[in-house]
Amino acid sequence: MPSFSNLKPKKVLFIATRQIGDVLVTTPAIEKARELWPNAEFHFLGYRGKIDMLKGNPNISRLIETSDRPGLIEYLHLIGRLLQRYDLAIVTQPSDRAYLYGLLAARHRVGVLGGHPQGLAEQDTSKRSKSEKQNAWKKLISMHTVDVDYFAQHVIAEKLRLLEVFYQNPRDVFNKAISVTPPIGEPLSAGVAKQLRSPYVVIHPGPLTAYKRWPLAYWQTLITWIVKQGWQVVLSASPAKQDLQLNHDILSLLDPEIRQNVVNTLGELSIPQAGTLIRGALAYIGVDTSITHLAAACNIPTIALFGPTPPTNFGPWPNGFMGEQPYLLRARSQTVGNITILQGPGECVPCRKAGCEDKATSNSECLDQLEPAQVIEALQQATKV
User: Fold this and answer.
1) What counts of helices (H) and strands (E) characterise the chain?
2) Is residue 5 part of a domain?
3) Which residue, 11, 366, 367, 374, is most buried by CB atoms nearer than 10 A?
4) Residue 251's domain is classified under what CATH number?
5) The pTM is what?
6) How many Cβ atoms from other residues are within 10 Å of residue 109's Cβ?
7) CA 35 – CA 39 distance, rounded (Å)
8) In what order do the strands lie in the sheet with 62-66?
9) What pLDDT shows up at residue 208?
C-alpha cells in the first residue's frame, strides 16, 4: 500500500507520449485528479497529432505537443517550456523518455512501470533482473509507481492507481462510476455530410498493425448483411495509406448495388469529426484500435473484434462502470454496458503476441476464425433487430 501524501499541487503535467488511444484512456485519471485538486491547473504533454482526443476537455488548460523523434532544437525548446514549471508530473507511459520529461518538468512524480512484471514471473531470473534494473531509476525519482499487468489489470485502472498515493484509503480511487471523456465534436466535412442518411453503421476496419486485421471477405459479408437491413454503412479510416488501401480493397469486393450504400470517408475526418460521425450512428463495429475506444466513449452500441490483445487490459471501457475490471480474459462474446467484445476460439486466446508469428505483419488465427455470423448476431442484439 502506498504511503499517503497530502501534496496539493497547483500545476500538474500529464504525460502520454504514445498513440491516440493511450491519450484517451488517461481521461478518467484526469477527471479523478480534478476531484482531488479542483483549483489546480492541468497541462498535457503528448506527441504531435496524437492528442486530438483531448480537444475541448474541460479539465486541460494547455496541450503541449512534441515530435515522437524531436531534433536537438526542438528538444531544447521543449526543455525550456517544461523545466521545473510543475509541482507534479503524472507519467502514464513506462518509457524512459516520458520519465525524463517528468523529471525535467516537476518536483514530484508518479508513474507507470513497464517490463511485463507478471509474465516475467515465469521466465528466467536474468530477464527479471534486467527489467528491475531498467525500472530502478524510475522508482528512485518517483513518489509512487504502478506496475503494468497486461493480462489482469485494465489500463484505465492502471492510470487511476497512479493517484492512490493521494488517498488515505487507496481503494477510494475507485469509489465512483468511471467514464472516458471523448473530445468535443466538430462539424463533418461537406463531402461526408452530404452523403449520410440515417440509420447508418460506422465500420472501422483498419488497425495500426496487420495482426489485428479481420479478413477482407468477412467485411464483405458483414457489410452486405447490414445494407440488406436498409441501413447505410460508413467506412472510417485514418489518413494512413494502409487504412485507405484496406477500405479500397473491401469496397472492391462489394456488389455494385451494395457499394452504392457505403460511404467511404477516405481518411478525411479529424478525431473530433470522427466523434461527431460516431455519435450519430446506429452502431459501431471495429477492430482493436483507438477509434473503437472513441466509439465506446461516445456511448453508442460498440462491437469490438479482439484477437491477441487481452480485453482485461485494453478492452474499450464501458462508461459508468464502477470497479477495476469490466471484462473476462477469455469469452467468445461478452457485453458490458454499450460494449460487446468478440473473441475468436482457441486456448491461446488472448496471447498478447504480435499475431501467430509474433511480428507486426503476421496474421492471427483467432481473428481468422471469428466468423461474420458471430458479429451479425452481436449487431442484432445491440440494435434489437
Assistant:
1) 16, 13
2) no
3) 367
4) 3.40.50.2000
5) 0.94
6) 24
7) 9
8) 62-66, 41-47, 11-16, 86-91, 106-113, 144-147
9) 86
Q: Please, are residues 208 and 237 in contact by the beta-carbon 8 Å criterion?
A: no
* Shared domain check, 19 and 61: yes
Same domain, 130 and 197: no
- Distance in angstroms (rounded) separating the CA atoms of residues 264 and 234: 6
* The residue to which cell 475506444 is assigned: 293
**Position of cell 487481452?**
310
Q: Residue 135 belongs to what domain range?
A: 11-174
pLDDT of residue 82 exceeding 60, the answer is yes
Last residue of a domain, one of 122, 147, 174: 174
Give yes or no: residues 241 and 372 share one domain. Answer: yes
* Tens digits of residue pLDDT in 324-348: 999 999 999 999 999 999 999 989 9
| 184 belongs to a structural domain | no
Q: Residues 351, 353, 357, 363: is their CA dihedral positive or negative?
A: positive
Contact 326, 350 (CB under 8 A): no
Q: Which amino acid is at 347?
A: E
Query: Rg of the chain's alpha carbons, rounded to an integer?
Result: 21
Please indicate, yes or no, whether residues 256 and 346 belong to a single structural domain of this protein: yes
- CB count, 10 Å around CB of 133? 10
286 and 378 together in one domain = yes
Q: Are residues 158 and 215 in the same domain?
A: no
Give the pLDDT confidence score for residue 117 in this predicted structure. Answer: 46
Q: How many domains does the chain have?
A: 2
Closest to 278 in 3D by CA, of 382, 183, 190, 177: 183
Q: Which of 259, 290, 265, 260 shows the shortest CA–CA distance to 277?
A: 265
Q: Enter the C-alpha cell of residue 87.
A: 509541482
Tell me which amino acid residue 32 is: K
125-159 pLDDT, tens digit per residue, is 656 667 788 899 999 999 999 999 999 999 999 99
In a shared domain, residues 36 and 122: yes
Per-residue model confidence (pLDDT) at position 3: 83
Task: Look up residue 211 and give its DSSP letter.
Answer: G
Helix axes 216-228, 241-253, angle to 10 degrees: 60
